[in-house]
Write a structure and sequence with these properties.
Helix content is 36%, strand content 25%. The protein is an alpha/beta fold. It has one domain: 3-Layer(aba) Sandwich (Rossmann fold).
């Protein structure tokens, strides 16, 4: 989290992490499409060899507060391929929350496990406690065959501290829910650590409502 008192702006950094082709980029593209045009920045791609890192700046979402402070959400993805681990670590720097995008197909179980272990290793490497930073998990590609069942995901959820969301990112299903869940958990964590409501007059519930109001999501996308 960064606070620019001159610009009256508080910036929260959220990172979408996961194995190659799990749907990280698709999530950000969907969010960019769903966000109201006056709240979103340009969707920018930084090409890397054989992969891409996507940078998306959701321009200030103004939240009513006594201080007049604006909240800016910055959303990033990381390249999924193993060769780009240094880039992933750099993108994770100063992250306030992480959405781990997993592939629901059973054939990708090993890739999911390796990527999640890599996330924890990289967080620890840069000095962020993986047990303290807010992490939500999205199981994407729920429309494909050979996927883990809902019952299996419930069992995984029962054994994990992370909230699990189900998604079909290519259709926008579950994308908004994942983002809102991540923003809620991240802000609650920041509130606990920095007492933001007392310092800046930003109510957590009001913040989530403001974020949700900027997203033109279809009611059929509700649910987890």
């Amino acid at each position: 989290m960064q606070v620019d008192f001159g610009a009256k702006e508080l910036t929260v950094k959220l990172v979408y992490y996961g194995p190659a082709l799990s749907g990280k980029t698709t999530n950000l593209r969907a969010i960019h499409w769903l966000a109201a045009s006056n709240t979103r920045g340009e969707l920018m791609t930084l090409e890397t060899q054989n992969d891409r890192t996507l940078f998306f700046d959701m321009l200030p979402i103004t939240v009513s507060s006594e201080s007049g402070l604006k909240v800016r959400l910055k959303l990033f993805t990381v390249p999924g391929q193993v060769m780009h681990n240094t880039t992933r670590r750099l993108v994770l720097q100063a992250a306030d929350g992480v959405a781990f995008v997993a592939d629901s197909q059973r054939s990708e179980d090993d890739a999911n496990r390796e990527s999640f272990a890599n996330l924890k290793e990289n967080l620890a490497e840069i000095g962020i406690d993986p047990e303290q930073i807010p992490i939500v998990i999205q199981f994407n590609k729920r429309d494909l065959e050979g996927i883990r069942t809902d019952e299996e995901l419930e069992a995984i959820s029962a054994q994990s501290r992370a909230t699990i969301y189900k998604a079909i990112a290519t259709r926008g299903y579950g994308v908004v829910q994942t983002l809102l869940g991540l923003v809620r958990e991240t802000w609650n964590n920041l509130e606990k650590e920095h007492e933001l409501e007392e310092k800046f007059g930003i109510n957590p519930t009001r913040l989530i409502t403001e974020v949700e109001s900027t997203l033109k999501h279809d009611p059929r996308q509700r649910g987890r």
